[in-house]
């Protein structure tokens, strides 16, 4: 006897069709606001001359981390400039910054709530497991009917893909605060909000920064993949090289992605440590 298959795909498609039709006004508004933010930040960074932005980034790396990182940033960015990939690098950086900001803003309240509520913690952990094991390419599928082809869809997919680490690390950091400190705050009559703001969040800050670091790395990887749905930046250079069978161009764009990833990683790690390395 043949067992009928569950029409899960049809249910998902029907749900997406219903959401896109019922909330088209909302998605169009979100799309306009997001596109305005992307264009504004991208134009602002492109307004600066290459040498000016390079000097700002090098100075920031030197101030936040170390002279060695500043020198490395200067050499890496100079190479990107020399390869003619400065504009795609700026476009990629814009998408990463906006997606990371949105993901962190959404993740922090959820992580705090999960840390303070055992019921919510047990509910949200399986959801995060599901989100982190889902292949990255799948997140591109619902982005297209909601926002169409382009950078806005890339932001949507990137936010969903990169959010779980920020939630996990926020929850972990708050739950790892020593019980003795919580009891001391209770003894001094601190309210729940005072304990959170003055004890739990400051003590969990290194863990929170580690989560933000992971979110940035995932956002960068997803932004590159999102070139398949029309996102601009270094990912589109890689995708164009694949389509035209030009491995040299693809490796050049890949090296630029690696340089950008290393700079973002080292800077956020230095912020997490709170001192120069």
Briefly characterize the structure:
The protein is mostly helical and about 280 residues long. It contains 13 helices and no strands. Helix 5 (about 85-115) runs parallel beside helix 8 and helix 6 packs across helix 8 (about 150-175).
Descriptive report:
The protein has 277 residues and is mainly α. Helix content is 83%, strand content 0%. It is built from 13 helices and no strands. Helix 5 (86-116) packs antiparallel against helix 6 (118-133), helix 5 (86-116) runs parallel beside helix 8 and helix 8 (151-175) packs antiparallel against helix 11. The longest helix is centred in the middle third of the chain and has 31 residues, at 86-116. The mean pLDDT is 86.
Give me some keywords for this one.
globular, 277 residues, mainly alpha, 83% helix
Chain-wise SSE layout:
Elements: H1 8-22, H2 24-47, H3 50-64, H4 67-82, H5 86-116, H6 118-133, H7 140-147, H8 151-175, H9 179-187, H10 192-203, H11 205-225, H12 234-243, H13 247-273
Helix pairs in contact: 2-5, 2-8, 3-4, 4-13, 5-6, 5-8, 5-11, 5-12, 6-8, 7-8, 8-11, 11-13, 12-13
Q: What gap, in angstroms, lies between the N and C termini?
A: 67 Å
Helix-strand category: mainly alpha
Query: Shape, please?
Result: globular
User: Helicity range of the residues?
Assistant: over 70%
**Helical stretch count?**
13
Mean pLDDT: 86
Radius of gyration: 21 Å
Q: Bin the strand percentage.
A: under 5%
- The total of beta strands comes to 0
- Main pleated sheet: none
